[in-house]
Amino acid sequence: MLSLAAMAGAAIGTGAVIWPFIDSMNPSADVVAAGAPIDIDLSKLAAGQQIVVLWRGAPMLVINRTPEALKTLQDPALVSHLADPDSRVHQQPPYTENWHRSVKPDYAVLVGICTHLGCLPIYMPNPDPSTPVPDWPGGYFCPCHGSKYDLAGRVYTAVPAPYNLPVPPYRFVNDAIVRIGENPPGSTFELSSVVQM
Length: 197
Description:
The chain is an alpha+beta fold. The protein has 4 helices and 9 strands.
């Protein structure tokens, strides 16, 4: 019995000694705040859902877009109302300069800060008829001054926001994990290089 107690005490003591070393291998809060990449598990994100995570102190919007939403993004009626449908203004990495503004069409990763005055746009993929925006198929709506974006973060014309929502650097580690803050191999995009946050 005494030997069992001694072994338990030794195990606890060893754990107490090596824990600070193990814990020191995790990135500190200031490193994470400075922009250490973060991994997001997409396996539980259902079609049509969005999650919001913080990276570098800013909200990152991760959306699993439905097939219907992807069709809407290509609808000429919607595209004709967008200020920058082809992402010509530098608000995203080169690898997301496409109609869906993403690496994979199903998943969008956007900086959730309105390009007008820095408000937080609301995710409204299917607005009901009582919304203050008539004939709008949904996307992001900024309640502060009425700016509208589609589900690719592309800004509409005739709204206060001048630019599309920024796209941060990101890549897919595998089919279920997206890493925000790290470019795909061979790319060097920095979020600080966009025209406006």
